[in-house]
Amino acid sequence: MTPQYDIIIRRGNIVDGTGAEPRLADVAITDGIIAAVGQIDGTAAAEIDAIGLLVTPGFIDLHTHYDGQAVWSQRMNPSSSHGVSTVILGNCGVGFAPCRPGDRKLLCATMEGVEDIPGVVMQEGLTWDWESFPEYMDVLAAKPRDIDIGVFAPHSPVRVHVMGARGANREEPNDNDLAEMGNLIREAVKAGALGFATSRTAVDRRNDGEYIPSFDAGEPELVAAAQAVKDAGGGLIQMIPELGMTGLTPAQEFGLMRGVSDAVGLPITFTVVPGRKNNPHFWRELLRLSQEHNAKGGALIHPQYFPRPVGMMASFELTSNPFVNTPSYKKLAHLQLPDRIVELRKPKVRAQILADNPDEAVLPLTAMTRQYDVMFELSDPPCYEPAPGNSIADRAEREGRPAAEVAYDLLLENEGKGMLYVAFGNWPTDSLDHMFAFFDDPHSVIGLGDGGAHYGLICDSSYPTFVLSHWARDRKGRQLTIQQAVRAMTSHPAGIIGLHDRGRIAPGYKADINVIDFEGLTLHAPEIVDDLPGGGRRLDQKASGYRYMLVSGAVVARDDQPTGILPGTLIRGLQAKPTQSLAA
Asked: Pick from 161, 254, 178, 256: which is nearest to 213 by CA?
């Protein structure tokens, strides 16, 4: 008898992405689409036994930077190691298209500074067989990969392409500049871009310390860009706001976003990272203003948050550590790690580095690795909600010695490969209780995995595993239900960005599905791997417990290992909701 379906997932605990209670059911798949959900009596070419396992839609990360990795690699990991089946590129307004040959160096310098992608990696890995945004999309579409990718039209490349040095130097655009930028953005959206992305934060710098081209772009420029998106069919506007770093108030910064939203009627998502010392209440005011705006109806503004501390890894073999900007350490930075560790162990060298005052940091992020009050020894499995009293500063106080000395000695452990975790953002108090301000807001959305970026600094794209294992299973105190956690990473972000064909387990939807050992799900500590072009190194993070991961009905991973099957495609444009009924 000819099988009725390609695959049937049998007797799984279905968490369908809508927020509904889990239920026991089968899932049948044909031609990459979910054909039926319920008690299925038919046959299939292959079956997956999901007894005792969780079955969820594939996760969606709205904020990544795989713009380069999608060119040189077929795997979008770490994201694809954590149940993520769709990632969005081009965030923060940085990327590689459109780009004239003469501007390649500038765009790479921007990406190196903002996203910590080494220049040699881009030199070796980028093929540059494109100039226009549509040509770049064609290059992405030509490479099969493990998961789906979508792309925003990025502001900085568009600005430089139109204005040249004036755009790079952040000069005010004239009417002709705005018209030409609009033409390029319309062209990008018609080629399949899912919207437009920009950044106004002072943290984002080129590798020479200069602000990126989009920094402090005014409302007329942003309205013109958003109008171009609307003219070409619509999409999401993604913004990194100023966040109070240069003196603007929450009302001023939100007013700009509201002005753009009201002018063109498109949805906006903006990053919110609660601070600890500087402007600790800035985020609450932004959240309140967005809630007031959304209550009035019309185009929605979505605060985008990260579900654990935004953290950097500090190490002598990574991009940054607490001493990377000190004069004495800089003299040793050129040495290979084994030789550098020999020097760092010398008492005289150690004493001099500890006595040094750091030079002014070229990149703000590297200066943040001296925040000992939010610095923690990295465990395995890692603890992303450490109990009060466990910071390096706390430990130093108990031991009666300087915090810098404690950090230095810990970094020397394991032959100089010790790592420390610096919770520089989204850790306003010594717990994650503040996250419920976002979890409880119907218009806030999880994102900010940053996969494909910060190769030697941050490894946050593992957050879906943390959401499931910590927020929905292990956390002491208030938790999320499993259906809340899954919805937050599936149908909710899918709806916000306009990918209505995925994020649910229901007939007619794309068969992006995870089969998970929920009780055994484990997030491992980040590790350093050497798999980038030009011999570049990066942080990777693995998980245990993903029994199966399907993209478009194809098994891309089994028992936490990639199968080598590559069904992932480039998403071109907004995707319509299936016409079939959700009832099954």
From this structure: 161
